[in-house]
Amino acid sequence: RSLRQALGAWRGQALAGTRGIFFESERDRLEELRLAALEELHAAELQLGERPGLTAELRAAVAAHPLRERLHEQLMLSLYRSGRRADALAAYREARKVLREELGVDPGAGLDRLHSRILHTDPALDVRRAVRQPVPSQLPPDLPAFTGR
Question: What's the whole-model pTM score?
Answer without folding.
Answer: 0.74
